[in-house]
């Protein structure tokens, strides 16, 4: 059985990657100019097609509704990608494989294997994974796709937050659909389809200083069981933080492909959880501020336009689909005429909310570490590099958005904070870690420059 799971996983990854490679020429250059790091080249050449292919596959599922039709359409895209790959091979007159980059990426396999082993050896146990994400996956598997059915609007299942995007449930339904089996273990094999591109994305930040392994290790330890227990929060946080890391590097190095990958990661995050929309708004505001501060404005072009469409068409399609299906809003936010009076009445709860988010959710530890590192680094560098500034400001903006959400909710505040504070702040913690990484990367680069400067005799 294990070998069959590996075979299906490999087949899905290959088809998704080849389908994404058919779209890659529309998104970014085949090779980023000046990139000589073999690990970074391998990670970027692998990650971009996988992210693009995943978004394309989810969009096709939302349009075609059926797994079988989606598989056919994706296979056609994969065939186009195969032809493109063959044409590049013929044109270069050699079969080019970045073997050194592949070998350098192998330590990441330890994390991937750990996630897979834990996911397949432990049953679905947490309430959210059983009653939301994989409950929806079971519905999708029984329907043979993301099809309109009375069950989506049945009052009996509205407790399960049907409003959330369906990327994770759709992925969770792949293996039960292929094997025609549903149990408490097999559906979680699909989590590897999110884990592999997610951790390869972190290797895109290799710069020869080995800090990418700091990033990967700290992310893996912080997310822990959230990557294998069937919850969506871990993967939302992983892709959300990766998006901001790419944006920070764009403002530092001006690499055109970085902004494309940032958009793709944001698109994945939006397709995983509804909180992705808050992250998009926060990122947009942060990026505009950064553009003014660092005087760097992305130049609009066709590739940027394609990336925007590919990244956000899934969430737009899901919004249209859920409206047409009659799925009601379940965010428990007060948008009525008395919204101002509701907010004014809740202002006194802000200290209580902040206590839960910062103290009980352990956010203060990451914040203190990031703050100390950034203050010391800024004094030494005499500037605040965008690689550190963007994750820090985005994290603070997202935290502000969370506070506003808790103020505006009509649900019982104490209960909601107890069940969600630890999960909703996870992306903020990873953004604080990302800010530390950005500052350390700039500090090490500065130390290297000082060490190589010619000294007076």
The number of helices is 20
Principal-axis shape equals: globular
| Beta-strand residue fraction | under 5%
Order of helices and strands: HHHHHHHHHHHHHHHHHHHH
Q: Structural class of the helix and strand makeup?
A: mainly alpha
Low-confidence regions? none
Mean pLDDT: 88
Helix content: over 70%
Question: Cα-atom Rg, whole angstroms?
Answer: 22 Å
Distance between the termini: 69 Å
Number of strands: 0
Assembly state: single chain
Q: Main beta sheet: strand number and arrangement?
A: none
Number of domain units: 2
Would you give an account of this structure?
The protein is mainly α and 457 residues long. It starts with a helix and ends in a 5-residue tail after the last helix. Helix content is 72%, strand content 0%. The protein has two domains: 329 residues, no CATH class; 122 residues, no CATH class.
What descriptors fit this protein?
mainly alpha; single chain; 2 domains; 457 residues
Please give a quick description of this structure.
With 457 residues, the chain is mainly alpha-helical. It contains 20 helices and no strands. It folds into two domains: 2-330, no CATH class; 336-457, no CATH class.
Helices and strands in order:
Layout: H1 2-23, H2 38-64, H3 67-92, H4 99-105, H5 108-121, H6 127-143, H7 167-172, H8 174-179, H9 192-203, H10 211-223, H11 233-253, H12 256-272, H13 276-294, H14 302-325, H15 339-346, H16 350-360, H17 363-381, H18 386-408, H19 413-424, H20 426-452
């Amino acid at each position: 059985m294990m070998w069959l799971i590996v075979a299906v996983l490999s087949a899905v990854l290959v088809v998704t990657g080849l389908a994404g490679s058919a779209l890659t020429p529309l998104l970014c250059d085949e090779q980023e100019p000046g990139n000589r790091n073999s690990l970074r080249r391998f990670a970027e050449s692998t990650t971009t097609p996988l992210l693009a292919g995943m978004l394309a596959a989810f969009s096709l599922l939302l349009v075609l509704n059926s797994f079988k039709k989606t598989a056919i359409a994706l296979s056609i895209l994969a065939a186009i990608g195969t032809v493109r790959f063959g044409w590049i091979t013929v044109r270069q007159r050699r079969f080019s494989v970045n073997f050194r980059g592949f070998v350098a990426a192998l330590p990441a396999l330890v994390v991937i294997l750990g996630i897979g082993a834990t996911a397949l050896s432990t049953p679905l146990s947490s309430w959210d994974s059983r009653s939301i994400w994989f409950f929806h996956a079971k519905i999708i598997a029984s329907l043979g796709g993301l099809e309109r059915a009375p069950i989506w609007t049945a009052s009996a299942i509205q407790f399960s937050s049907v409003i959330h995007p369906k990327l994770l449930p759709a992925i969770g339904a792949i293996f039960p659909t292929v094997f025609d089996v549903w149990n408490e273990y097999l559906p979680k094999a699909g989590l590897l389809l999110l884990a592999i591109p997610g951790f390869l994305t972190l290797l895109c930040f290799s710069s020869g200083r080995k800090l990418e392994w700091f990033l990967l290790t700290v992310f893996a330890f912080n997310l822990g069981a959230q990557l294998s227990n069937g919850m969506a929060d871990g993967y939302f946080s992983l892709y959300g933080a990766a998006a901001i890391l790419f944006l920070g590097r764009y403002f530092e190095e001006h690499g055109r492909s970085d902004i494309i990958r940032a958009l793709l990661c944001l698109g994945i995050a939006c397709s995983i959880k509804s909180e992705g929309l808050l992250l998009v708004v926060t990122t947009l505001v942060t990026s505009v501020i950064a553009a003014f501060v660092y005087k760097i404005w992305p130049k609009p072009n066709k590739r940027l336009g394609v990336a925007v469409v590919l990244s956000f068409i899934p969430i737009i399609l899901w919004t249209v689909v859920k409206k047409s299906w009659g799925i009601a809003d379940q965010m428990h936010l007060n948008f009525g005429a008395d919204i101002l009076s509701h907010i004014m009445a809740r202002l006194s709860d802000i200290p209580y909310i902040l206590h839960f988010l910062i103290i009980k959710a352990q956010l203060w530890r990451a914040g203190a570490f990031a703050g100390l590192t950034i203050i010391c680094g800024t004094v030494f560098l005499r500037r605040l590099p965008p690689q550190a500034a963007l994750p820090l400001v985005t994290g603070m903006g997202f935290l502000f958005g969370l506070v506003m959400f808790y103020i505006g909710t009509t649900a019982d505040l104490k209960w909601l904070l107890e069940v969600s504070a630890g999960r909703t702040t996870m992306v903020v913690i990873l953004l604080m870690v990302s800010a530390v990484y950005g500052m350390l990367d700039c500090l090490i680069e500065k130390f290297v420059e000082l060490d190589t400067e010619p000294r007076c005799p």
